[in-house]
Amino acid sequence: MKKSKKILRKLGVYGFDRLEPVILASLVSEDPLLLIGKAGTGKTYLLNSISEALKLEHRHYNASFLSFDDLVGFPYPDSNGREVTFLKTPATIWDAQSVLIDELSRCKPEVQNKFFSIIHEKKIQGIMLQRLQYRWAAMNPVQSLTSGADESYDGSFSLDQALADRFAFIVDVPDWNDLTKEEQELVIHPAGEGAVSETSSELAQLVRTVRPKFLEHIKNPSYETVTYCRIISTLLGDEGFRISPRRARLLARNFTALFLVTAELGYPSDIKSKNMLYKLGLQWSLPQRAWKGNIEGHVIDAAHAECFRLAVNNNPDDRWLSEFLIAPAVSSRIEMLMDDNIDKEIKSLAVMQMIGQDSKARAGAFAFAAQPVIDARSTVNEEAINALTTIAVEIMNVKGEMSWSAYNSDAVHPQWAACVQYLNSLGGLTEIRKKRARQFFLYLLCNKAAVIEPEFIEKELNDCFLSAQKYAVVLKPPTAAKQPWLKRESIKKFSKNIS
Known about the structure:
The chain has 20 helices and 9 strands.
């Protein structure tokens, strides 16, 4: 972001201008913050300076050699010998308002588990840390096979995914070449070594002002933010970056805090600035960098661009089309296609794009179940219905061979054997459902489509039929009469391939 109040500069912290909105948003939300950076980039200096500026009761722990007793103090029984309490010292965590866990990636596994509850719940030994507001951590970059000699950090390993997912913002700290000439000169100034930040009324006032607004807004977040978080979670998941339900919720909290902070600082609220803020918040809210290392920026950029177009800067037809294509359940697409408020050509485009980009199993399940209803209702144009009909006919009249590589040419196709085993387990189900599943498995295998999880594929197929059945009452008799093989619950004729 070009515009910045440069509040952090006033604390003697330089090089964080572009990240300032994110850092401030984390102070407002009070959700855990993780900084990742090379040695000497100012990670701990930034966080210690903030604690000094806000006059917090602060604890700074080095996780690489910390013991549990350093956190809780020495246990001793009370006078009755019935309870154990802990002797507090200036270093124990009990009265802390902020805690910085430094060198987290060098932490012993047993100690890392102790930090987990602090970061996630503000608890230790099951006891609530009543005064704790801020949980911060810092680490070196994740060691990777492609790291050069100058980037090697022996003993710095990726975090456990569950632990990484507890941090709201996960921020890469800029190195020397990422700084502007002005920032470089400010960092160089020798007076900054060991300096203590003065109390910042501006920073404290910002947090005091925005924090109540944040607590109010998260009770009823904007529809735009919720939509963005929902769509981006699906898009990134499709690209191999799993977004957990917890992460999706943290995304919504992050964006809420980010927009409130920038509004308080006087950032512009036009569409261009909003686009930049969503991208900024997304970039530093993904936990994968704490265990995977480098994240492919072009994947995130593409997902954000598509998501922003749909959630913020879009027209209803574009939104519906993308919602259709990213719907996680194939069966839900059948119901979406029955919406009479959507233009027929948009529906047709959606069907054609689905056939082109979805797997044979998903596109086939849709066509097998929905073709009669779609045809009867004239839901899509001729091109789209013909494409669906072609797939449905191929499923009903399977032709081809199940070929595979095996040492023994007389061996049973391994995936077909798994399909038969699953079909034999469907004792309590209707015969028509079993026949549909058998026919569909044959279609997939003869078309060289893998059937790794027969149970999942069959249940998805059945969900599609159940969804289509809701609209089967509108089937036109002429259509059914001309194409008897398409009747929903009267499929009696199967190809000899299934005998």
